[in-house]
Amino acid sequence: MIEIVSVDRCIKCDLCVDACPDNVFDAVPNAAPVIARQDDCQTCFLCELFCPTDALYVSPLSETIEGSTEQDLLARGIFGSFRREMGWQNAKPRGTAGDLSYRIFETGTITP
Amino acid sequence: MNTSDVRLDTDVLVVGGGPAGCWAAWNAAANGASVVLIEKGYVGTSGATAAGNTTTIYTRRGTTERAATVAQRVRLGHGFTEPERVERVLDRTLHNLDLLAEWGYDFPTYEDGRPYRGMLRGPDYLRFMRQKLIKARVKVIDHCPVEELLVSEGMAAGAIARSRRTGEALYISAGAVVIATGGCAFMSGALGTNNLTGDGYLIAAEAGAVLSGMEFSAQYGISPAYSSVTKGVVYFWGTFSDEAGNVLTAPGDRQSVVASELIKGPVYAILDKASPRLQEGFRKGQPNIFVPFDRMGIDPFTQRFPITLRHEGTVRGTGGLKIDNRAGTTVPGLFAAGDAATRQAMFGASTGGGGPNSSWAMATGSWAGEDAVRFVRSLGKNWRSRSVRTAAERPPTRPSGASTDIEAVLDIVKQQMLPLDKGYFRNQKSLSDTEHLLSDLWHDESWRTGRASKVREAEALIATSRWATASALLRKESRGLQRRTDFPDANPVLSRTIDTGGTDLIWTSFHNRAQASAAS
Ligand SMILES: Cc1cc2nc3c(=O)[nH]c(=O)nc-3n(C[C@H](O)[C@H](O)[C@H](O)COP(=O)(O)OP(=O)(O)OC[C@H]3O[C@@H](n4cnc5c(N)ncnc54)[C@H](O)[C@@H]3O)c2cc1C
Ligand code: SF4
Ligand code: SF4
């Protein structure tokens, strides 16, 4: 579930407010968005892709609250890890060319 | 209608902005129509494709690869797959994938430099389609779930939607409507399925549309126990074990082995059969599987982790609105594409995950867009002045009053649909108990208060569950995704599809064979 909007990192662009498919965030004038409907979060991690400053953290736990702290996540280098693995930059798609998924099918174990 | 409400009109209205809806909207616009694409969430992140990474099928007719795919579908279809339909879907898929490449989608390449077009990363693919639609002058409206269909003399004529943010209603009149609202995963928490509550099935059924194959909705995906990520592909290289570490060796498909064991106790998996080369392929292709493992501090290639099964309903099952051999529903002017339509003609009684589904969404979406434009043209010039009415039969939700806990209503439905010993394995008693309970819930007016959009989602969930349950009751055999413990074998006499429909009164019937082939 979405757990953290880092007020220190957020530049108040509200891209996450729009991009979240489940309308989890509320925009706040002159402030970082708030997590208004955490229960509606579907743990899809996509808001992290759209955040230009890696200010969001979605915990991998979909049914319970993890309770990680910002300091802890910073220390573990986790902010933005999904975006970096995907290759997106500045809320823009990048990185599809590096997809090595064809290896899944090369041994003939499964046929699409 | 309030004065603050908004009115729009358009030639073609597309409801739902996953791949099926995007291809419908693009093809309708490319054929010269004005198009509105309206979406409950956000076009680009909502739906099952956006959150997953999608394997698709890029094969040319007449090649051995194509023949292998078609043969596999026929084998897994348990009597319902139409080989020529599969061929046509895959022809159109090839065409669309080539279009994407031509438009500049950054496909990967094999090591030898040949292009690889068999994988579309969800958020990248849909972001790309969104930009393409905006350039094609499609009006894209986000965060506005459609709640009702408008009809005129038995034809689909538009829809009423409501903004999630402002509560404002949108009245959209249209010459033709495409339902591309995806499947229904019964709010199981499977990846990307929160918005997939069966809304399109309900609004279409209210207008008289027929559904088919709803008993083949008992598809469950494997995910880590704590997680939403129902990405099953990695488990082909996995080993399953029980709490004590005993490897599960029972014969049968892996889902059923895991399901039987999960009813007894926890099940673990380890992806110990993936070579280092494949491990790298997985990591560099499917970050949405591996970033969550990293965050948990689990190395799935060397460490056991607990798993569960999450219902994927008609998202990776096969039921949905009944269509002709392109995308026309049984209601004139109403088209259905992607998971909103029954996919029995392509993958019969088995799941269409892992390639068939995404191909089906591209092909049927494209056909829906083209045929919707043809339909609007056939209406002549004056369709905008025809009188329309809502197809919803129910009285509107009372906005005031003690707001009932909708979550409690949803929980009742989930408790009927999700448990493995009711949903995955079913029998006469479990199904008829569910049927009665859901019928009572549907006819109970007391919970229909508060936020109209939430009430509507709950109604769609209940209606979809009722069609799935009634169809499963009628099919007294096991076949593919229909697993009846009281009828463990397939009955050759029942190799016919089941239609269903109705809202207050649910009906089901076997479709006779002659009609089935005449329709195709
Ligand atoms: C985890 C996972 C992995 C998968 N992987 C694969 C794969 O590798 N290969 C494959 O072929 N298939 C795969 N599938 C299946 C595939 O994702 C679907 O078949 C595909 O997304 C169907 O496309 P669609 O456009 O019909 O539906 P969706 O992509 O689900 O889109 C439906 C859209 O309709 C919107 N909507 C719903 N209700 C309303 C309403 N009332 N008003 C307006 N909009 C509404 C939703 O918000 C959503 O955006 C996977 C599914 C899952 C869950
Ligand atoms: S993880 Fe998905 S549903 Fe949750 S807040 Fe982010 S975008 Fe929204
Ligand atoms: S996308 Fe990131 S920077 Fe923009 S408002 Fe959201 S959290 Fe702040």
Automatic annotation (TrEMBL), chain A:
Fetch the InterPro entries from UniProt. 4Fe4S_Fe-S-bd, 4Fe4S_Fe_S_CS, Fe-S_Ferredoxin
SUPFAM superfamilies under this entry? 4Fe-4S ferredoxins
PROSITE patterns the UniProt entry points to: 4FE4S_FER_1 (PS00198), 4FE4S_FER_2 (PS51379)
Coiled-coil positions are none
Instruction: For this UniProt record, give its keywords in alphabetical order, as a comma-separated list.
Output: 4Fe-4S, Electron transport, Iron, Iron-sulfur, Metal-binding, Repeat, Transport
Q: Which residues form the signal peptide?
A: none
Q: Does the keyword Transport apply?
A: yes
Per UniProt, what is one GO molecular function of this protein? 4 iron, 4 sulfur cluster binding
The residues covered by the 4Fe-4S ferredoxin-type domain are: 1-30, 31-61
Indicate whether 4Fe-4S appears among the record's keywords.
Answer: yes
* UniProt protein name: Ferredoxin family protein
Tell me the lineage of the source organism: Bacteria, Pseudomonadati, Pseudomonadota, Alphaproteobacteria, Hyphomicrobiales
Automatic annotation (TrEMBL), chain B:
Q: State the protein's name.
A: FAD-dependent oxidoreductase
Q: Which InterPro entries match?
A: FAD-dep_OxRdtase_2_FAD-bd, FAD/NAD-bd_sf, Fum_R/Succ_DH_flav-like_C_sf, SdhA/FrdA/AprA
Which organism is the protein's source? Rhizobium deserti
Keyword Isomerase carried by entry: no
Q: Which UniProt keywords apply?
A: Flavoprotein, Oxidoreductase
GO MF term list: oxidoreductase activity
Instruction: Tell me the SUPFAM superfamilies matching this sequence.
Output: FAD/NAD(P)-binding domain, Succinate dehydrogenase/fumarate reductase flavoprotein C-terminal domain
Residues of the FAD-dependent oxidoreductase 2 FAD-binding domain: 11-216
Record carries keyword Flavoprotein: yes
